[in-house]
Write a structure and sequence with these properties.
By secondary structure, this protein is of the alpha/beta class. The protein contains 16 helices and 23 strands. Helix content is about 40%, strand content about 20%. It has a 7-stranded mixed sheet with strand order 15-16-17-14-13-19-20, with helices on both faces. Strand 8, helix 6 and strand 9 form a beta-alpha-beta unit. It is globular.
């Protein structure tokens, strides 16, 4: 059986804890590898090495740092198929979806190649008599990121690419469920010319997370995962004086107006609701048709599309629509929530409870489910299911529909499907949710905009990637300078003011 490692100081190391986690094959339910779980001492060693390496990297000019990222992009494209296969093998998502995972991370790396421009400060000539003022954006030092299982390529790159472009060292603590791709990314960064110690990968569980949170040298923490853990990491990190950005759970609504193209809306809902087995923080899990006629037409379009979905392992070909969920526990939780939906009175229009895949009976496959007539007091409406389950909540008016999304505790993403520009504009302006799609079901911004939700979907005041990333991973220093010019005025004992 394969035994994985940490990646510290440019080399694979086993660690000292003696503890391991199983890395499963979600399609078969079999253990395919073991990954070491770092001790507090392992984390401390990685941080110490990073702290020693970081000053020289920070002193490297941004253009040279960007050249490492340029080479990294070339290597990502070279190894795209290899990365996608490794990702699919441990996560379970289809090969095209896995390649998309890598690609969306790559796009952020491409944006970060613009670091020489993005790190420019401001300058004011003659702010006072013979006085100039200017600002500099300087790196934090040693930074860290804790990333989830559902995007093991994309989200690590969303964090470490801007951190490293800004001149920081970065400690990555990826999910122990699918750790191979993060390790491969670290190897490719080294091949691209990144100095040893600047990108470290430390696998682990809560012990490793707490070691990062409480280490005095670590200046910032990024996190993506569930809301309860996001709240814990945000509170603990802030209490320890760190800069923290945490992205939590979601319950994304898609409002379907009576004038919407119903075929387009149905296709969008199937892709956004069931892609990656629903294991996306931007998945649409709640459809909100406005009016019973709209709901009936939408359900009529959805049912045959959902019943035709092909569920299987990534090895079954690129026409597989989605694969297994990540663990047996995740499967059991989804099945439990489906039962609560039935028990609480929702109408199960497409029932995937009896789904079995011949030859993969021990895998973590979950059939597609479609609920209708869901109400907002039901558990399947309130809870992030993170599985292939779409709930339909019927609204009688646009105001009721928008109110559902606005009243929910999560505010990650939302969408509206309509042909009416006034409605779409009103929706975009009023909705209290961070990312909005208009006839776009999964409104994930491109790399040069920022990604982030509102309400209990985010903790912290800066988003991921785009300009916010360069703000998060730097501190601003402002310099007021005067050079001898023959002006002799003696000491001043009051605060200088503009005249």
């Amino acid at each position: 059986m394969q035994e994985l490692s940490h990646y510290i100081d440019g080399a694979h190391v086993s660690g000292t804890s003696g503890r391991f986690a199983d890395v499963m094959n979600p399609a078969t339910g079999e253990v395919q590898a073991k990954v070491p779980l770092a001790s507090t001492e392992d984390v401390a060693m990685a941080v110490e090495i990073a702290a020693k390496a970081q000053p020289a990297w920070a002193a490297t000019n941004p253009q040279r740092r960007a050249r490492v990222l340029m080479k990294f992009v070339d290597l990502l494209n070279r190894d795209m198929d290899k990365l996608a296969e490794a990702l699919s093998r441990e996560h379970g998502k289809t090969l095209p979806d896995a390649a998309g995972d890598v690609q969306r991370g790559l796009e952020v790396v491409e944006y970060c190649i613009g670091a020489p421009h993005l790190l420019k400060g401001e300058y004011t000539d003659s702010a006072g008599p013979g006085i100039d003022m200017y600002s500099m954006r300087q790196p934090l030092g040693v930074t860290a990121g804790i990333t989830p299982f559902n995007f093991p390529a994309m989200i690590p790159m969303w964090m470490f690419a801007p951190a490293i472009a800004c001149g920081n060292a970065f400690i990555l603590k990826p999910s122990e469920r699918d750790p191979s791709v993060p390790l491969m990314l670290a190897e490719l960064m080294a091949e691209a010319g990144l100095p040893k110690g600047i990108l470290q990968v430390v696998n682990g569980d809560k012990e490793a997370v707490d070691a990062l949170l409480h280490h005095d040298v670590v200046q910032s923490i990024g996190f993506v995962g569930s809301t309860p853990i996001a709240e814990y990491i945000y509170a603990t990190g802030c209490a320890n004086g760190k800069r923290v950005q945490c992205f939590g759970g979601a319950k994304n609504h898609m409002i379907v107006m009576p004038d919407a193209d119903m075929d387009q809306a149905a296709d969008a809902l199937v892709g956004a609701g069931y892609g990656a087995a629903g294991e996306r923080c931007m998945a649409i899990s709640v459809a909100v048709p406005v009016g019973d006629d709209t709901a009936d037409r939408l359900i009529e379009k959805l049912v045959p599309r959902i019943e035709k979905l092909k569920v299987g392992p990534y090895t079954a070909g690129n026409d597989v629509d989605y694969g297994p969920v990540v663990t047996a526990a995740a499967k059991a939780n989804i099945e439990r929530l489906v039962e609560t939906g039935v028990d609480q009175g929702a109408e199960l229009v497409v029932d995937g409870r009896d789904f079995k895949l011949q030859g993969y009976e021990d895998g973590y496959f979950v059939g597609p489910h479609l609920f209708d007539k869901v109400t907002k007091d039901m558990d399947i409406y309130k809870t992030e299911i993170f599985g292939p389950v779409l709930s339909t909540v019927r609204a009688q008016t646009y105001e009721e529909a928008i109110g559902l999304a606005m009243d929910h505790e999560y505010g990650n993403g939302t969408a509206i499907f309509t042909r009416d520009g006034d409605t779409a504009r009103d929706f975009a302006n009023r909705i209290n949710i961070g990312m909005v799609g208009i006839n776009v079901p999964i409104p994930v911004p491109l790399a040069y905009h920022t990604f982030g939700g509102w309400k209990k979907s985010v903790f912290g005041d800066l988003n991921q990637h785009g300009p916010d990333a360069f703000k998060f991973y730097t501190r601003t220093k402002t310099v007021t300078a005067r050079w001898p010019s023959g002006i002799k005025e003696g000491g001043e004992f009051s605060i200088p003011v503009m005249e």
